[in-house]
């Protein structure tokens, strides 16, 4: 029988559950998963989110004893991938590696967003966090945040800073730095991560906020210089880079979180099973080590904790977006 027919029968069966009683839910959940799963990530292969998805996805597939494929649907700061999963069948087979940009920042920033994460998605677990680095081209004479701010205030014009897209954490990080340090900023929104990285290295922009996961290799390779981290403490990967608090700007303290989501309406027993196996995958020693080495803080939270986090982050970023006056459409 074709897979879409199987999925349709399962969904029709779910619709009849109120008549059949809860044992039918348990029976269906016990058979899950009986076919291939898909984990969608809204960014290209080789990027930080893709690394997270592949490391966790491989182990999750092993835990579930099923093939799990990674579906890269890049574009619009993660919104394309998020929309795809939000509109998928709520059967547990289509999952999303969601992040702060497409889940918490996009709803207040884009009035015509084609999905509603609060209504159409259910969070399973927060898996990792990524802090950010303020970086400048390696050829820049600026060595500290104080020097960057002084140069920005004396520029006589808006300071151009690269972002990986309008409405992304790096975009609002630039706005946050602008507000806290008191200089005007001109965000330059690049269509892809690769284009933004190329612009930073080439010196086409004065600076940018990049995730620690992305920046480590570029910095150690001598292509960028990091001035500060948004983390509360220095990164073990870059121990010579001070925090923004140490640099006199403690309110520049944002980070990017990553969590796995399923379409709203997915049966609770399936959500519970997925949460257990996701947490086990994240906490597996070999996965944890690789994630840490890649620059991430490893978590793996319970569903209730993840729900509280998403609600709090959505409220926080709504206030940030409102303060900037940004509208993406």
TrEMBL record:
InterPro entries to which the protein is assigned, alphabetical: BUG (IPR005064), Bug_dom1 (IPR042100)
Q: Cross-referenced Pfam families, in alphabetical order?
A: TctC
Q: Which UniProt keywords apply?
A: Signal
User: Among its keywords, does the record have Signal?
Assistant: yes
User: Source organism's superkingdom?
Assistant: Bacteria
Q: Which Gene3D superfamilies match?
A: Bordetella uptake gene, domain 1 (3.40.190.150), Periplasmic binding protein-like II (3.40.190.10)
The signal peptide stretch is 1-29
The UniProt family comment states: Belongs to the UPF0065 (bug) family.
> What name does the UniProt record give this protein?
Tripartite tricarboxylate transporter substrate-binding protein
Provide the species name. Answer: Ideonella margarita
